[in-house]
């Protein structure tokens, strides 16, 4: 049995990756439990397993005392000195008490305990391995799917992809090889649970790192990603080297680099924008491809909000289809964005003059009239002009 046990432990370490020391520790614990249960012995027993020979031995550990009250736990100083004159009171001595039929009983009793320890060790190995890939991209194979999840094999573990992390335009079929973003790794009771995603903004960042060497080595940095998975994303980049154009480098020659990311994400559009220290410039870049005339900030508002002025003919482009362009720009910059056409801002400026401003302009106009005998200029807009329809759009950053 001993030879077979050693071979089994070696095979377990080779095939399952479970270290022999872990299994031996579990085996010794199981054998100790088996001995106590089957032989009704005291708790002061130790079981050792020889990893080279495969021999199993049971020892009763007794304390050296001047007077023995329990022979199962104690040994007299006289008897101890008969074994070795160096023993003193308080020392512990091991006495071998291995039963002849212990091998059979131990094997039966310890089997379940050993298998449990082996499963735990395997789970720990898998968790340690895959927790290193959290927030990274892995290549997987679609195994199956149901109403809630798509199950993706990543090798030693089957990851799950919830519906919220699945691309609406993609149809996942068995045996399809796909790239997934490892969003979370949990060490659950039943074993490691890996959650993967195709919609996480982090996936866009990792894909660009794979396609753009300058991003991978840190020459170009991705500052932020705002994404509506499967439809459109905005990626803000900046360069740590003044001689490197961050946007051009990310886009690549003839758009080859960004196109590779677009192809991987089933045609999802990518807007690459230049990150700026100045918030107004950053917001203007984020609203690309729309032209921005000016960005005004509301200093009295505690929230980060800005009013963006665009040419009338650019209003629809700035807002985007169903407000998407403005919404993504808000997510990317972290500002609540209110987009207004140039014509409306002109009317608002005139109408929102304070009483003091009106009085001052009226006084100036009156003085001019006295000096020149001309009619004072009217400081209010015509009534007909105020009937123009308003066209504004609000975009508030969210945590989506």
Features:
400 residues; alpha+beta; N Utilization Substance Protein A, Chain:P, domain 4; OB fold (Dihydrolipoamide Acetyltransferase, E2P); GMP Synthetase, Chain A, domain 3; 4 domains; five-stranded antiparallel sheet; four-stranded mixed sheet; 13 helices; elongated; cytoplasm; TF_NusA_N; transcription regulation; elongation factor; transcription
Structure description:
- With 400 residues, the chain is of the alpha+beta class.
- The protein folds into four domains: 2-130, 2-Layer Sandwich (N Utilization Substance Protein A, Chain:P, domain 4), CATH 3.30.1480.10; 132-197, Nucleic acid-binding proteins (OB fold (Dihydrolipoamide Acetyltransferase, E2P)), CATH 2.40.50; 200-275, GMP Synthetase, Chain A, domain 3; 287-400, 2-Layer Sandwich (GMP Synthetase, Chain A, domain 3), CATH 3.30.300.20.
- Helices cover 38% and strands 26% of the residues.
- Strands 7-6-5-8-9 form a five-stranded antiparallel β-sheet.
- The longest helix is centred in the N-terminal third of the chain and has 30 residues, at 102-131.
- Mean pLDDT is 81; it is low at 347-393.
- Residues 367-380 have a biased composition (Low complexity).
- It is found in: Cytoplasm.
- Participates in both transcription termination and antitermination.
- This is Transcription termination/antitermination protein NusA.
- One of its GO terms (molecular function) is translation elongation factor activity.
């Amino acid at each position: 049995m001993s030879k077979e046990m050693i071979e089994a432990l070696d095979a377990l370490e080779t095939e399952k990756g479970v270290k022999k020391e872990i299994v031996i520790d579990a085996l010794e614990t199981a054998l100790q439990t088996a001995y106590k249960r089957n032989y009704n012995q005291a708790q002061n027993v130790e079981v050792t397993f020889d990893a080279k020979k495969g021999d199993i031995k049971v020892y009763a550990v007794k304390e050296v005392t001047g007077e023995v009250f329990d022979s199962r736990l104690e040994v007299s100083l006289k008897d101890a000195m008969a074994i070795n004159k160096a023993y003193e009171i308080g020392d512990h001595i091991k006495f071998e008490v291995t039963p002849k039929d212990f091998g059979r009983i131990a094997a039966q009793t310890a089997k379940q305990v050993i298998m449990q320890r082996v499963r735990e060790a395997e789970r720990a190995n898998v968790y340690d391995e895959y927790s290193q890939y959290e927030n990274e991209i892995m290549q997987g194979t679609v195994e199956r799917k149901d109403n809630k999840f798509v199950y993706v094999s990543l090798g030693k573990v089957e990851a799950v992809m919830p519906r919220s992390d699945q691309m609406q335009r993609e149809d996942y079929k068995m045996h399809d090889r796909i790239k997934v973003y490892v969003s979370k790794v949990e060490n659950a009771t039943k074993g490691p649970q890996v959650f993967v995603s195709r919609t996480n903004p982090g996936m866009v960042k990792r894909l660009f790192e794979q396609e753009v060497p300058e991003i991978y080595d840190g020459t170009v940095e991705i500052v932020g990603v705002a994404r509506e998975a499967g439809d459109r994303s905005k990626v803000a980049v900046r360069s740590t080297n003044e001689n490197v154009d961050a946007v051009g480098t990310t886009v690549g020659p003839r758009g080859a680099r960004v196109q590779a990311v677009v192809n991987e994400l089933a045609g999802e559009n990518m807007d690459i924008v230049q990150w700026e220290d100045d918030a107004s410039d950053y917001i203007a870049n984020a609203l690309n491809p729309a032209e921005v005339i000016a960005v005004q900030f509301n200093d009295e508002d505690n929230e980060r909000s800005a009013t963006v002025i665009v040419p009338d003919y650019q209003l629809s482009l700035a807002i985007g289809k169903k407000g998407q362009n403005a919404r993504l720009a808000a997510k990317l910059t972290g500002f609540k964005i209110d987009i207004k056409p140039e014509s409306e801002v002109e009317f608002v400026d005139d109408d929102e003059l304070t009483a003091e401003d009106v009085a001052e302009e009226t006084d100036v106009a009156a003085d001019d009239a006295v000096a020149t005998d001309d009619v004072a200029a009217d400081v209010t807009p015509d009534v007909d002009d105020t009937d123009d329809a308003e066209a504004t759009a609000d975009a508030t950053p969210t945590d989506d």
